[in-house]
Amino acid sequence: VANQKGGVGKTTTSINLSAALGEKGKKVLVIDTDPQGNTTSGFGIDKNNVENTIYELILGDCTIGTSILKEVVKNVDIIPSNVNLAAAEIELIGVEKKEYILKNEVDYVKNNYDYIIIDCPPSLNMLTINAMTTADSVIVPIQCEYYALEGLSQLIHTINLVKERLNPDLDMDGVVFTMYDSRTNLSMQVVENVKQNLKAHIFQTLIPRNIRLAEAPSYGMPITRYDPNRSFACIAIKRQRHKRSRYKMMMQTAPKSPSSSQMIEKIISFCASGSGPIFCTDSPSPFPSSPPEPMA
């Protein structure tokens, strides 16, 4: 999940997409490559008291097995990060084939997971290049504001360079619009502008703003745990399970499993379905001192 622009929804997308995939029974590994460590803390982990992080992994001070924290939420493991990672680029000066360090480590465990989601830092540095060299596809969150469009062409150029020189298997999976506000003309104009000028897949689902999602990281929970009674992601997943169960009973056979792109498209759609918005922003917001009471 990459975009060199900050505050567009990379971390929020990574946390909640992985949690929703986990709720659907998929085994997921999340890799936090951002020195801010927001994905790590977003799962309720004290990033400053973790023994092994991706920093130690990149420097060869630990193995990938010892750096993985198991089952931070249902079916989701994570390789955490903290501020120490900011020094990694300096530490790697002069190291040969440093673009492949993360890929070489992930190769040991990738067969243990259905999905590996990498949250990239808001820059096009060596950490992002390592992530792209490791990945098969890139999801690009774009905030529905003008500044978010600046640099998009540079990001696409970087993806193409990595594909050409380092990772021929890399593709751009698509653009997902975040923080969409249907009440403003600007959001609609940004969406139309990207659709007209970007020759890449664009996810049909628009992720709207929602205060509950902005509050969830302060409690170290994905939205599927923070507000399951009102989370349209959870409701949609339950509905999908019910429909699949009825289909099996009627047809006496299981439906064909969707491809990775189809599954991600469905999960993103699930997380934005329902009569109100749910899944959108990295930006901080005021929150109460304790979690809200469950809704009836």
Q: What structural category arises from helix and sheet content? A: alpha/beta
Major sheet, described briefly? 4 strands, mixed
Low-pLDDT segments:
274-289
Strand arrangement, major sheet: 2-3-1-4
Query: What string gives the helices and strands in order?
Result: HEHHHEEHHEHEHHEHEHHHH
Overall 3D shape:
globular
Q: C-alpha Rg, in Å?
A: 19 Å
Count of distinct strands: 7
* Beta strand %: 5-15%
Approximately how much helix is present in the residues?
Answer: 40-55%
Terminal CA distance: 35 Å
> How would you state the average pLDDT, rounded?
81
- Count of helical segments? 14
Which key features would you list for this structure?
three-stranded parallel sheet, globular, 14 helices, 296 residues, alpha/beta
Please characterize this protein's 3D structure.
The chain contains 14 helices and 7 strands. By secondary structure, it is α/β, with parallel strands linked by helices. Helix 1 (10-23) crosses helix 14. It is globular. It starts with 9 loop residues before the first helix and ends in a 24-residue tail after the last helix.
